Amino acid sequence: MRNKVEWRNGKVAEIRQVAEDVRYIGFAVDGPVPRFDPGSHSNIAVEIDGAAANRTYTVIPAPPGQIAVAVKLHPQSRGGSRYMWSLHEGQEVRLTLPENRFELSWRAKHYLLLAGGIGITPIYGMAKALVARGASVRVVYAARSRGLMAFANELEALLGDRLILRDNSQGQHIDLDAEFAALPGDAECYLCGPIGMLEAAKAAWTASGRPVSRLRYEVFGDSGLFAEKPFSVEVLNRGTRVAVRSDQSLLDALIGAGVEMIHDCRRGECGLCAVQVMGDGVEIDHRDVFFSAEEKAEGHKMCACVSRLTEGHAVIDVGYRN
């Protein structure tokens, strides 16, 4: 884990609905809030089933002295979004100052920003920053319906015809091949959305012959290819058997069972919480962006913070890197 995470006291200053299932929550923070770039995130202390935990949220544009996030209420929430939706104005919270793992390069002559669902949170901030700099930018935003598109009205006012909305309920989807084909050669693409959207974009980008370095992405860890089902694991050489609920991550279940785990991002990005899956025939729903496609196909490693077994049982080694 990193040494320089600065926690602050804060208080809920504003709550408003920005989509049918998304709330904007702004926090007035004690002390100065340094400038932060779009794509940054903060950790927020939450309470899940009576236990203290931390959850990470993308930071979005907010008034000076505040940190704001947009939280989607997930039907299969592990508790984080339920807690965030239970907050009320004036309630005290603990949160970290923003840090960034999804940075704009600021070097491209043209930017394509793609968002799927709640993946709009970093894209919204990026769009505002790029427009403020006079950059050439196009945003394509897809969701299951117009009512589920957070910040759609704000983006329409900001971008005009440079914003394309794709309403899945109307049979509309992002045509990745067409979007990439229309880009100038020196363009960059930034994407945030579910894992299926990311995999499709990576394949289309590679097929277009563009440099891999010009496609940057972030994925949210609850976006697997399979429905979340309970499963169980046995920790190698410890005899510890751990049951994982459908609304619980493997990482949280292991920590709750007293297994010491190294972890940081809780987003499937850093790889610190990765475990070895022993044996063959175990089906893993990979939801991370840390392991390569080849490593995922081998089926012997998984990020405990986001990935899970599709069902059943497996033996895992939590210390295979030592």
TrEMBL record:
Superkingdom to which the source organism belongs = Bacteria
GO BP annotations listed: methylation
Q: What is its EC number?
A: 1.14.13.82
The UniProt record lists the keyword rRNA-binding: no
On whether Oxidoreductase is a keyword of this UniProt record, the answer is yes
- What keywords sit in the KW lines? Methyltransferase, Oxidoreductase, Transferase
Q: Name one GO molecular function term.
A: vanillate monooxygenase activity
Domain annotation 2Fe-2S ferredoxin-type: ranges: 231-322
> Start and end of every FAD-binding FR-type domain?
5-105
This protein's name: Vanillate O-demethylase ferredoxin subunit
